[in-house]
Design brief:
Helix content is 43%, strand content 12%. It is an alpha/beta fold.
């Protein structure tokens, strides 16, 4: 089991004239300290070419680094125009994305994560389903030297159906389970040989980031289709860019802690749980002592 990001981080609190590499280094170190892998550049490299961005980030760490790409279906919808123009634009983006993925694979990138936020709008429209399938198949045509992962955040895409969402040979599916709880319907029918990344950590400030929900999500995903924990990851549910840096780092720590508990001894896991999550009957009867909330960190203290 592993933990990773599914979107950008806020800008680290460095000087206004800090170099991009310094910002990315801070993001990488925060992910390393939290125990995440594969790592990302936190979305801090802007419009750098994907290969250039990946090589630069991978050179900062000895851990696996993934490269995030915008999906062709989402990019095609963003351009406007009539249906014919959008179809042509979508498929052109898919062809160009295919070349980028192959370039990354040749360079040694272990994982390419394709973000298709617009998949939540496909629904039952057969024309949209067909366009999504064709775009993904073109995008992954001949790709065999890297792990390709499809990420859907911001809502539920279950109405499109698993035959549409996984028409192309993606090795894993990452889904937002907070903004899109019906994505569980996709998880339940995702083939067991395909990995699942559960976006189950709430992205907003002041949320309960205890391990209970994360570990429940991981356990359920592992139980579907005989998948097993080795094909399950944990992630936040959407972008952390709107948080301040300490709050974002605290989210990373929560992800890493959940994974460590998931693979650690059962007694450590139980000791870390809110007692009400272990015994609902005892909680209802008021016979458990609820641990007090942790005090907020003081200025200058690590989260």
């Amino acid at each position: 089991m592993f933990a990773t990001l599914l979107g950008p981080l806020p800008r680290p609190p460095l000087a206004a004239d800090a170099r991009v590499d310094d910002l990315v280094t801070a993001a990488v170190r925060a992910q390393e300290a939290a125990g995440l892998e594969p790592l990302t550049d936190g979305g801090l490299r802007g419009d750098e070419p994907p290969l250039t961005a990946w090589l630069a980030t991978a050179g900062l760490t000895d851990r696996a680094v993934k490269q995030v790409l915008a999906g062709p279906y989402t990019g095609g919808r963003a351009g406007g125009g009539d249906a014919a123009a959008r179809t042509a634009r979508t498929l052109d983006l898919a062809s160009r994305g295919n070349a980028v993925i192959k370039e990354l694979a040749t360079a040694g990138c272990p994982l390419v994560e394709v973000h298709e936020a617009a998949a939540v709008a496909i629904g039952t429209d057969e024309a949209e389903r067909a366009l999504f399938r064709e775009a993904q198949l073109r995008l992954l045509d001949g790709v065999d030297r890297t792990h390709a992962s499809l990420a859907i955040v911001g809502g539920s895409a279950h109405e499109a159906g698993i035959d549409t969402i996984l028409a192309a040979p993606y090795a894993s599916l990452a889904v937002d389970l907070i903004a899109g709880p019906d994505n569980w319907k996709l998880v339940a029918v995702t083939p067991g040989e395909c990995g699942v990344v559960c976006g189950a950590l709430q992205p907003g400030p002041g949320t309960n980031d205890g391990p209970e929900l994360l570990l429940w999500a991981a356990s359920y995903a592992a139980s579907t289709q005989g998948r097993g924990p080795g094909r399950v990851g944990l992630a936040r549910a959407s972008s952390l860019a709107a948080l301040d840096w300490p709050a974002a780092v605290a989210k990373l720590e929560a992800l890493g802690r959940a994974v460590r508990l998931a693979v650690g001894p059962v007694d450590e896991r139980l000791a870390a749980f809110d007692p009400r999550a272990v015994s609902s009957r005892a909680a209802a009867l008021g016979t458990v002592d609820v641990p007090p909330p942790a005090p907020p960190p003081r200025d200058g203290e690590p989260t």
